[in-house]
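User: Quick one: structure for sequence A, then sequence B.

Assistant: Sequence A:
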Amino acid sequence: MRCLNIIWLALMLNACVAPLLLMSPQGQLMWALLKPLVGLNPNDVGLFEQPLIKDRMKSLLGDNYETTVSLLKTADKIQQEGPLFYMVSTYTPVPEMAEKAGFVWNSETNQMAVMLLTGGSPKIISEQFTNQAEKLIPSWPKELADYTDPQKLQQKAIEAGTEKLQEQIPAAAPLKAVATGDVKTTQETVLEKAVNEVAAPTAVKEVKPVQ
């Protein structure tokens, strides 16, 4: 029994070490940095100040560095999906610059990529290596993949536009009621409002006699 436990432990350790052996030295350092931090807040662990992350991001992003980091600092945790380690902003402190940001590091390719969403359109900035024969297309986790699909992106824009229109035009409520079948409730609300407006006393302006 003890022998089986030792064999099982060895297999588990081998499964963890095997991917590391296939990585470049820089990839191994990135893995060693990010793997223990999965589930933690990147700000609490000072991730964006780590030279391994900061230097690569500055080189990759150039003029987009400050905007991207300001958005990514709103991410509440470092996540992992398969070989992908990633972070996604939760809100935007600079809406005039970008609405959303996502950061991904692919442990299989050692590629770092960033997505900036501006005006509903994604701007993708990814590392390319000199020793590769073809352009390396970045991989994205499910949370960000929809933003790279034109059809899904268009659907998101339509839904956002419809929601904004409904907020700005209260008169759209009857149309919504027709669509949902809740016409009776809407009719009762409109009638009640009309009755209240008719029953409301009208203020009479006081006329003072001329002396």
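Sequence B:
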Amino acid sequence: MDETVDADHISDLPTFIIHHIMSFLSPKDVVRTGILSTTWRKFQTSFPVLDFDQNNFLVKSRVKRVLPFNLEDMMSRKNFCKSLRKFIRFVDASLHRFCELGFPMQKLRISVSLLEVKESSPLFDKWVELAMENGVKELDFEVITDKNSVNALPQTIFSAKLLTSLKLFGCKLEQPSHCANLQSLKKLSLDEVYVNDQMVQSLVRECRVLEDLSFFYCFGLKRLRISEAHKLKSLILRFTYQELESVEIAVPSLQQLELSFSRVPRLLDVAECPHLRKLVLFLPHFNDQEFHPLISKFPLLEDLSIISLETLERIMISSNRLMHLEVYNCSGLNRINVDAPNLVSFDFEDNPIPIVSTNAPCPLNVLFSNFGDIDTHWYLNLMEFIGAFNQIGELHLSLNYKQVLFNIDEFRSCHPSLPLQVESLSLFMESFSLYMDVVPSEYEILLDGLFWIFYPKNLCLSPENWRYRPFVMMYPLEDNSDELMDRWPLLPQGDLWLRLDWCFPWFYDHLRNRSTNCSNGRQIKCWRHFLKGINVESFDPLRESSEGDLWLRLDWCFPE
């Protein structure tokens, strides 16, 4: 009988195809390919994407990575220095070995933590120069160290004609002695980099095909001006320090802009960006008088994110072009007026419940967090908010309460109408009485109020905030599991079963219990009369936990 041997057809593919396949692997898996065979060792050695991360050389049980804020907290300085030397030797040898092959370099990424920059700077300069000599197209260089000791990049980096992407972290950019010649650079990202105003203007002016520019918490800037960038499409500005006095952006080609400042500069001028389509604002001290004139400058705006504008009280938007709107964590907000007939998504999270007027056809995705008493006034505000929208897609309620003070008679006298439909409700509940058991009657009052407002098709009960009484946990099967399954038929999870803590059996019974005094004499019947069925859809366990999210399907039947 002839034996058949599986042939390795993959190894016979051209090298460039093998390298393309390897580009989808993680750096660790790329290294592992070298042990498959001599042929694969050659593929791995000539792979033009070089990714070196010092984290892979640290023994987790003995050494932790150096960060700017915990240089003195290392478990073992000696072990760290030893791993650093090993990492540097590996990078140096690997770079030289690749360069000797004569292949062009596609990408070089180096991430390293240092205690002392001066000792390693010459070696870093040599690595960068080797990459430049081999025509590197993407350079990602990350040096994590004390901010008082930064690594200045060599001048040769400004002559990298083939470089298309440059990402720097923890470095210093010094003014070159000659004009920069980064004629192919399309993406520039500076993260915790020391750079001055003149250097930025020079880079923007000389990088004529630059399309994507990002500043993340950089130092040394006082008067930032971005202009003469004729190809620039995306600009991100994130700053936390107080030195930045003014920001001027005059880029007619700009399409995406993010402004994130812990303190808004005295001068913020972005008027000359008429083609802007996406705007992200994270400006804690930006008020109504500043916000509305700003967004009025962008008539083509399609995507707007408003994040942590803590002093903003009103949002007044009228636009036929706006398609996506996000409003997050605006603690002072009390009124919204949105006239956007072409809006396709609207996310509203962690804000107060405002007065709303909308003309928007899309479903709303909303998250409300409540801290304090939940009274009838809170329910009325929630119902008025929900009723202002044509559709509610996903509704998330995170309720951290002291006590529930819902009065059904008071509520029905103000709103004698049927509940509103909600596609999906995710419920997170937690009492402030963290060290006390919460009795089911409190949840009963809470849920009664919610189901008088809306009826969800899908209901998710999450244990995320149930610190002491999770809704659902998963345990091994017990002898009485048959009785459990007969009463609450849930989906099995392999050799485990859902053991329902007291909250869910009570919740299940509460939904189905129509013998409760539910006010049959009123004009509108209690919500229990319209609930026709409860089905368990799924249980999604949390990672490395016996807890999880329980999804229920609720079938309702309301009169037309």
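Residues 60-74, 432-437, 464-480, 483-502 have pLDDT under 50 and may be disordered. The chain is about 25% helix and 30% strand.

User: Thanks, that's what I needed.
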